[in-house]
Amino acid sequence: DLMIGDGELCLVAGPTGSGKSTLLGAINGLVPHFTGGRVTGSVLVAGRNTRDLPPAGMADLVGYVGQDPARGFVAETVEYELAYGMEQAGVPPETMRVRVEETLDLMGIADLRDRKLTDLSGGEQQRVAIGAVLTAHPRVLVLDEPTSALDPGAAEDVMAALTRLVHDSAMTVVVAEHRLERVIQHADRVVVIEPGGVVTSGDPREVMKTSSVAPPIVHLGRAQGWDPLPLTVREARRRPGRIGRPVAVEEREEPNGSEMAVTTRGLSITYGSQVAVRNATVGFRRGEIAVVMGRNGSGKSSLFWALQGSLEPDRGTVERNVRVGLVPQSPADLLFLPTVAAECEQADTDANVAAGSCRELLDELADGIDGLSHPRDLSEGQRLALVLALQLVTAPDALLLDEPTRGLDYNSKEQLAGVLRRMAGQGKCVVLSTHDVEFAALVADRVVVMSQGEVVSDGRARAALTASPLFAPQIAKVMAPEPVLRVDEVVAVSR
Prior knowledge:
495 residues, alpha/beta, 6-stranded mixed sheet, 36% helix
C-alpha cells in the first residue's frame, strides 16, 4: 500500500532488478497492458484505475519517460518531437508554439531545436525525452533513471527544473534513480524496494537510516554516528564533529613504464557540420584505469568508437597495439539470442573458454538473473551486466566502456570496480567514459576531461576530482580542502 500526494517529488530506490521500473510502469498502465504479468490490487491515479485503462487512456494525466528514452522518439528533430504529443492531443497551434518555447528553455535545450534526434548524445536525448512529455502538461510525471546519462551540471539543471514544477505547479513527480546523491535532497518521500518486493516508504532521513541503498554522504553519516543523517554536502560540512584534519591516502603507482595500448594523434571526427572530436592527441597505457569525463556532447562516445576501430576519423590517426573491446552506451545492440543462458553459452564458445565462465562473470556483476529470461526483458542494469560479462569473457587487452554504470546500484558498481581493478592489475588497459563521479572516485587512476571535442585536461585522478567543483564526488566536497574521495578513506583514518 502506497500513497503519493499531489505536488510531491517521490524518489524510488532499490537494488538493480528489484522492481522499480515495474512500479513506475504500473502508474500509467504499461504494467500489465504492455508488459503482461498478473496484477493483484489496484493503482489509482486521480481516481482512474490503471487496470481498466491502457497507457493511451492515461496519457493526458501521466507523462512517462523510460530508461531508454530514444525508444520513445517518433519525430526526426527536437522541435517536432516536443510538438508531437500535443498534436495527438489536439492542442491549438498557438498554444503548442508557446509550450515548445517554454520547454526548450526549461530543459536547457534551445540550442538543439533543429538537431536530428539521432545525432544527439545520450544525455541530450534524455533531456529531449523529458521535455517531450512536459509539453502535454501532465499532472503526474514518471521518470525512470532521468539523470543516468547526464553530466553533473545537466543533472543539477534537470532536477532544479523538476523541483520548480513540483513547487510552482503542484505537479507530482515520481523518479526512479540509482544515483541517489543527485536526487535525494529534492525528495519529499523515498520509496525503497528491496529484493523480493518488500517496500519501505517515508521521510528520506528516516528511510535512509536502514536502507540497503544509500548515497555516499549517508554512509559517511552512518559511519560517524550522525543523527539526523545529512542528505546534502552543506549539512555534512556544518556538523560540529566533521573530520577536518589532514588525511593520509594511498595512491596507486602510475604505470609510466608500461606499454601504450592505444593512442590517437591529431584525431578529428565530424558529422556533417557538427564537430565531435577536434585535434585530439591522447594515449592510454596497460595497467591503468582511465576515466574520460566531460559535458554531454563533448565527443566522448565518438572518441571511443574511433579507438575501437568502427569509426574512421576525418583526420589524424589511431594506433592500436592490442585487441580492443567496447561496451557501447546502448548495450542491448550486442544481444541477439532469446535467453540469457544462450548468450552466455555462445560467448563461452566464441571465446574458447570453459563452459560457465561467462555466467560466473555475470553473477559477479549482477547475481540472481534467471538464465531463461529474454535479455530484452531484463532491467537496464541487468542488461548492461550481461553485455559486460560477454565482453569480459573474451579477455580483451584493452576494454572501453561507454557509460558502464547506467542502471547499476551501488553494490553492483563496487563489484564492477573490483573486476576492472583486477583487469588493470593483470596489465590490461581499461578506459571508461562516465558522468558518474562517485564511480570515477572508486576506480580511476587517471582522468581525461573533454570539452567541445577537445582534450582540455589529463592528469592523476585524485588531483582532477578534487580540483573541480563539478566533477568532485560528495566526500571530496565534504572533506575539502583535504584530498579525500571516498567514505572508506575517511573511516580508515578516523579509527
